[in-house]
Amino acid sequence: MKLYKHITILIATIFLVSACTDYVDYDPKDDYQITADVYFNSVNDYEAAVVGTYDPLQWMYLNILIGDIASDNTLSGGESATDVIGLQQIDNMTHNSNNDNLTSIWRWLYEGINRANYLEQNKAKLDFPKKAALYGEVYFLRAYYYFELVKFFGDVPLVTERRLTASDSGTLERAPKAKVYEQIEKDLLAAIASLPSSATQKGRATKFAAQALLGKVYLYQNKFTEAATVLENVIGVYSLVPNYGSQFLRAGENGPESVFEVQHTNTSNWWDWGFTPQGTEGNFGIIHNGPRAFSGPNYASGWSFNVPTKALFDSYNANDSRRDASILDIVAFATATGAEYAQGYKHTGYFNHKYIPRAGESGAQTELNYLTNYRAIRYADVLLMAAEANNRKTSPNDAKAQDYLNRVRRRAFNGSTAYDITATGDALKNAIWAERNFELAMEGHRFFDLVRTGQAASKIQGFVTGKHEVFPIPQQEIDISKLTQNPGY
After folding, report:
1. What's the domain range around 122?
2. Residue 241 is part of a domain; what is its CATH number?
3. Are strands 305-308 and 258-262 parallel, antiparallel or unpaired?
């Protein structure tokens, strides 16, 4: 198979034409510029192409599942030991370069980058009002996709000026992670300079979303002073909702705590299992998190993947409102309501309550059309990142770190100050790290937090230092482009 079938080369106009929200497979040819010549001739063409560049965000369900399954938070689950074997391998830390799930992540992220690069390639064709703001979205999205790639794979091929084409087969090389981060920072700074402060449409990137993402990028590089500075711009712009669990319900979407949220809908009425998840605009990840053969109120049946551990549930203070909002105790729920369910593989008795299938929130082919948005960046995450950055920067400000940390904790404990953290130094740092999991559990962040903070080997069973900090480069890419493999794989 050609390289362009893996680092996917889809023409960013063919798949965008009408509503610009559906993915259409296209076998690229070197005459793709003919399409650009007849396409990028109006503002609507550019707008449509940008909307299409958002589309791969809707395909990132594996990134989120793996962020917890690879960690100490959850077990793979499913029906059996061979159900989605890629997730089973990742849970067991036995994954290799032929893992289909990791290959999909690689392909889909490069598809997003290719769409952004196609816009960059055709940037000079037409001038129009608000063009800079539109390209701010392009740079934000490209930074988002490259950041995910670096988190998963480390050094990766870095291309920014043009789309990859069939002629690139066998010529690509992995750029050092530091160079990729340099480009991510450059893109986000460009986005910050041109994006509006408020979104013109739900789900569109804003200046503050770009600043929040840049703060996270700095944090991952241990640039704590820079992270504290940029995150300060976001403090006070958003607010914590009083009821923690409410923000994960449909009524809580795009609320005052949402900095950046991936939009999903069940209005496309998608039926095609052969083109999942690219074809549907629903959240395909949701069906993975529900109890099998469920019959009862509130929820719907799922596939019992990504099951929280008892250790995670027990780690919460019993008075912490986040425990039950994050984790559904299915045994207690069934006892109270008479609900029934079937136990899946590695059953723990717990399910992901934030992203569980809820009754009546899908359509057409039910499994494919859940409308639940993914809360990619929440204000609570910003506060905790700012707390960590202030604690760990060159000239620490532990008072500010405590303030930001305790804002999050007070919401969790219904406004009580009795649970405030007063520690300083390393003890405060460790409290912030622990708080990140209490606050963000089941949202796909845990594995990467453990890796970047050096805790992975002590927390994750089977984790091998020097190997499992990143995932293997897909073998198909190595065979075709002769990319080097990550150590240990």
Report:
1. 1-177+186-194+461-489
2. 1.25.40.390
3. unpaired
Please tell me whether residues 392 and 355 are part of one structural domain.
no
Whether the ω angle into residue 474 lies within 30 degrees of 0, i.e. cis, is no
**388 Cβ partners below 8 Å, 6+ apart?**
219, 224, 227, 401, 429, 432, 433, 436
Alpha-carbon distance values, 191 to 82, 134, 136, 229 (Å)? 43, 9, 4, 17
With respect to residue 449, please indicate whether it lies within any of the assigned structural domains: no
Identify the domain boundary among 372, 390, 423: 372
Q: How far, in Å, CA of 217 to CA of 387, rounded?
A: 15
**Residue 12: inside a domain:** yes
Same structural domain, 355 and 284: yes
Q: What H or E segment, with its residue span, contains residue 439?
A: helix 425-440
**How many whole angstroms separate alpha carbon 69 and alpha carbon 138?**
30
Length of the chain: 489
Residue found under tokens 């929280």: 308
Both 216 and 148 in one domain: the answer is no
- Beta pairing partners, 351: 328
Q: How many CB atoms lie within 10 A of CB 228?
A: 27
Task: Kindly report the three-state secondary structure assignment for every residue of 16-76.
Answer: HCCCCCCCCCCCCCCCCHHHHHHHCCCHHHHHHHHHHHHHHHHHCHHHHHHHHHCCCCEEE
Q: Where is the domain boundary, 372, 393, 415?
A: 372
Task: Please give the Cα distance from 289 to 304 (Å, whole number).
Answer: 5
Domain identity same for 109 and 55: yes
> Of 67-71, 168-172, 381-385, which gets the smallest average pLDDT?
168-172
Using a cut of 0.85, tell me whether the model's pTM lies above it.
yes
Task: Report the distance separating Cα 197 and Cα 257, nearest Å.
Answer: 15
Q: Render pLDDT for 55-92 as a digit per residue (tens, 0 to 9).
A: 999 999 999 999 999 999 999 999 999 999 999 999 99
Tens of pLDDT, residues 251-272: 999 999 999 999 999 877 789 8
Are 447 and 470 in contact by the 8 Å Cβ rule? The answer is: no
